[in-house]
């Protein structure tokens, strides 16, 4: 037995159908003919025991069909770029794809094996999606800041071009111990360990020199230590820093376990 209830919307009629087969409350839209009847459009097929619902756009949306929990599980298996593209599908997809449940693990994957974690990514109350984005942007930063210098401990060694006398005092070359270490201080000075034979207890200061082109791009960027030749800056794939010239090289030592991260609290390319 089939019961049909009809309500009018202008010349469009909405019919709700119910039957003994358990399919009830299914909307069937149609256009009224000149005799007041309903011209069925395929949402329900008259005379069949089981009513078939034609495919509609919203029924093909995985978020609607599978639900939020299943979609979270699926998106968690995708790479970060694919999840980021899902943010553009719709407001509903964005709400799911921006979940901290997804991006917490993405941040852990991104940070794995990195020498330094950016301080700006450790700010409280930021969503994990924002933290991930800021981390990627900071990892691409080529311009070193004062905070980058004094936040890290630096390994120091002479290059092969340095005078032999200096190289023979350097554990890196003579194999007598671990590499020498240097420390940049916030006040612009530099120190070394007490037993450092090369250091000799002399005073040392540093500065960062940056010159820009008219379009804002960096023309020249280096660290100056005393009157040594300019030490040019390199950013490595593991987010570590290296400053070097023809005579010596400084490399930042991994410190990814620092709770609050390192470096500046703002982005600067």
Automatic annotation (TrEMBL):
Tell me which InterPro entries the record gives. Answer: F-box-like_dom_sf, F-box_dom
**Residue span(s) of domain F-box:** 69-107
Q: Which residues cross the membrane?
A: none
Cross-referenced Pfam families, in alphabetical order? F-box-like
- What's this protein's name? F-box domain-containing protein
Q: Tell me what organism the protein belongs to.
A: Solanum chilense
């Amino acid at each position: 037995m089939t019961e049909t209830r009809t309500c009018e919307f202008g010349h469009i009629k909405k019919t709700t159908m119910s039957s003994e087969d358990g399919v009830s409350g299914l909307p069937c839209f149609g256009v009224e003919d000149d005799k007041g009847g309903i011209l069925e459009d395929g949402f329900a097929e008259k005379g069949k025991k089981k009513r078939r619902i034609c495919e509609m756009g919203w029924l093909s949306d995985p978020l609607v069909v599978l639900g939020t929990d299943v979609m979270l599980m699926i998106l968690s298996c995708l790479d970060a770029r694919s999840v980021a593209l899902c943010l553009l599908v719709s407001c509903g997809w964005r709400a799911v794809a921006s979940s901290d449940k997804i991006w917490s693990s993405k941040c852990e994957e991104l940070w794995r094996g990195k020498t330094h974690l950016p301080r700006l990514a450790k700010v409280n109350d930021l969503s994990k999606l924002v933290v991930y984005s800021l981390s990627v942007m900071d990892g691409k930063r080529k311009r070193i800041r004062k905070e980058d210098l004094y936040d890290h401990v630096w390994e120091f060694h002479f290059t092969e071009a340095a005078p032999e006398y200096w190289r023979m005092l350097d554990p890196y070359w003579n194999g007598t111990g671990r590499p020498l270490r240097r420390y940049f201080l916030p006040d612009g000075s530099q120190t070394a360990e007490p037993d450092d034979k090369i250091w000799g207890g002399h005073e040392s200061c540093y500065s960062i020199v940056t010159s820009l082109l008219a379009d804002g791009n960096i023309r020249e960027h280096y660290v100056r230590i005393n009157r040594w030749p300019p030490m040019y800056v390199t950013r490595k794939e593991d987010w570590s820093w290296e400053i070097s010239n023809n005579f010596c090289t400084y490399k930042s030592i991994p410190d990814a376990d620092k709770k609050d991260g390192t470096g500046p609290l703002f982005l600067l390319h």
